[in-house]
Amino acid sequence: MSELVGARATAARQTTSTQARYNRIAPYYDLTEALLEPIFSRWRRKLWAMVGGGRVLEVGVGTGKNLRYHPPEAEVTGVDLSDRMLQQARRKAAKLGRPVELRAMDVQELEFPDGSFDAAVATFVFCSVPDPLRGLRELARVVRPGGQIVLLEHVRVDRPAIIGQLMDMLDPLLVRMTGAHINRRTAENVRRAGLEVERVENRAPLGLVKLIVARPADTSHPG
Ligand SMILES: C[S@@+](CC[C@H](N)C(=O)[O-])C[C@H]1O[C@@H](n2cnc3c(N)ncnc32)[C@H](O)[C@@H]1O
After folding, report:
1. Residue nearest to atom 5 of ligand 1 (CA)
2. Which of 35, 46, 194, 212 has the fewest beta carbons closer than 10 A?
3. pLDDT in tens, 108-133
4. Domain span at residue 199?
5. Which of 16, 19, 22 most suits a substitution to test ligand 1, by most atoms within 8 Å of the C-beta?
6. Domain containing 134 — which CATH number?
7. Does a structural domain hold residue 165?
8. Which pTM was predicted?
9. Total of domains in the chain
10. Model confidence at 220, in pLDDT bands (50, 70, 90)?
11. Within-domain flag for 22
12. b or e along 66-95 (b: 16 or more beta carbons within 10 Å of the residue's beta carbon)?
């Protein structure tokens, strides 16, 4: 019990520091990623082409880099921990004329009722969520049974093993510097969160970036 309380307190502290970090870097965030964005934008376009219409939740919407790829037939709600990242996203939405609802919210504690969405999407988010299992369970809860969860995430490289070991060694330093983990096993976490993984595709050499497609587990036929 006290272990659980301790873990929750640590996660709360890390959440506050993640929020402060993204608030700090929000004005420069797009600039820092400008060199990689031509590659990212190809992945973003392909990902959103897989998401149909209906009610879609984008978590960790950031500065709104995905807004231009949102399907016009979808009714999208975007949430983020950082008000200042959301400020940038609001500007982008206005510029693009995108009708998106943007709200400050923690993916670990979503304020939506069960089954509120047909799909949920996150790109490069679960590396910096302090308790990723809690966040993924929240996605499982707010997406309706049979709905879709699509993630694009950089993850730990398992083969060659030496790369994974290096990532493990460097992770504490990188977390201190950037707030993001480089050795998350996100596909495994998706399974551990009780979601049914439909497919996992490598999007970068060595499987450094993965597309993960999952669904909330079907609980309609217990036993
Ligand atoms: C690396 S940025 C990615 C932003 C955007 N998805 C993209 O692809 O450009 C990670 C984003 O996740 C947000 N984030 C981190 N932890 C979060 C949490 N617990 N709940 C909601 N958003 C979170 C950060 O504020 C930040 O905007």
Report:
1. 62
2. 35
3. 999 999 999 999 999 999 999 999 99
4. 2-216
5. 22
6. 3.40.50.150
7. yes
8. 0.96
9. 1
10. low
11. yes
12. bbebbbeebebbbbbbbebbbbbbeebbee
